[in-house]
Design a protein that fits this description.
globular; 2 domains; about 210 residues; 9 helices; mainly alpha; 3 strands; Beta-lactamase; about 45% helix; about 10% strand
């Protein structure tokens, strides 16, 4: 619910900002942000507007620490959580652009030892299915939470024992483990860690230093 609330709030802010005319696009933005923060009981957030590679607006709202009344500012660091999924998908897009993978291929093309729960899943799941949450894997019942494993390939060995939560391509079930598979593909193809790929292919070129 928190995830949906934050996404909804950001969508409303962005929609409001860019629906304005050229001369007053940011007029009333702060009032709008405060309105929606109150509506959703949001504790704190920061808003940045970037245009033509320049930050034209950046400001914090509310508190990063409500108990100690510490305000959010334009440089407050927030946990990015599932924004990492966008990073993973971007890496795979880069690799496809370099003709090193195809998003329509089966993950087992790049991780031959990978096994899903049944032969149908093994045959028809594609990387696209992983990225669009249509693999049927779902949340795999907290497996990675209860039995954490830093090595991705080791973690994925559990998949063959876990029944799917939906039908491949026919269901839409949010899946963290599907992105673990996607990240493992990046590592296998590049022979470098996911973290190294993120740093070298995204953070460094974009000067994302914080």
């Amino acid at each position: 619910m928190k995830k949906v609330t934050i996404i909804s709030l950001l969508f409303l802010i962005i929609n409001y900002t860019f629906s304005q005319t050229e001369g007053n696009r940011l007029s009333g933005l702060e009032e709008e942000v405060n309105f929606w923060m109150k509506k959703y009981n949001a504790v704190g957030l920061s808003v940045s507007v970037v245009e033509n590679n320049s930050v034209v607006y950046s400001k914090g709202f509310g508190f990063r620490d409500l108990e100690n009344v510490k305000p959010v500012n334009g440089n407050t660091v927030f946990p990015i959580a599932s924004c990492t999924k966008a990073f993973t998908a971007t890496l795979l897009g880069v690799l496809e652009g370099e003709n090193k993978i195809s998003l329509t291929n089966n993950p087992r093309t790049y991780i031959p030892k990978l096994k899903f729960n049944n032969s149908l899943m093994n045959e028809i799941i594609t990387i696209e299915d992983l990225l669009s949450h249509k693999s049927g894997l779902g949340g795999v019942n907290g497996t990675l939470v209860l039995f954490p494993e830093e090595n991705k390939l080791k973690a994925l060995e559990k998949l063959q024992y876990i029944k799917p939560e939906g039908s491949v391509k026919e269901s839409s079930i949010y899946s963290n483990i599907a992105y673990t598979v996607a990240g493992a593909i990046v590592e296998e193809v590049t022979e470098q860690s996911w973290e190294t790929n993120i740093q070298n292919k995204l953070f460094n070129p974009l000067k994302m230093q914080n």
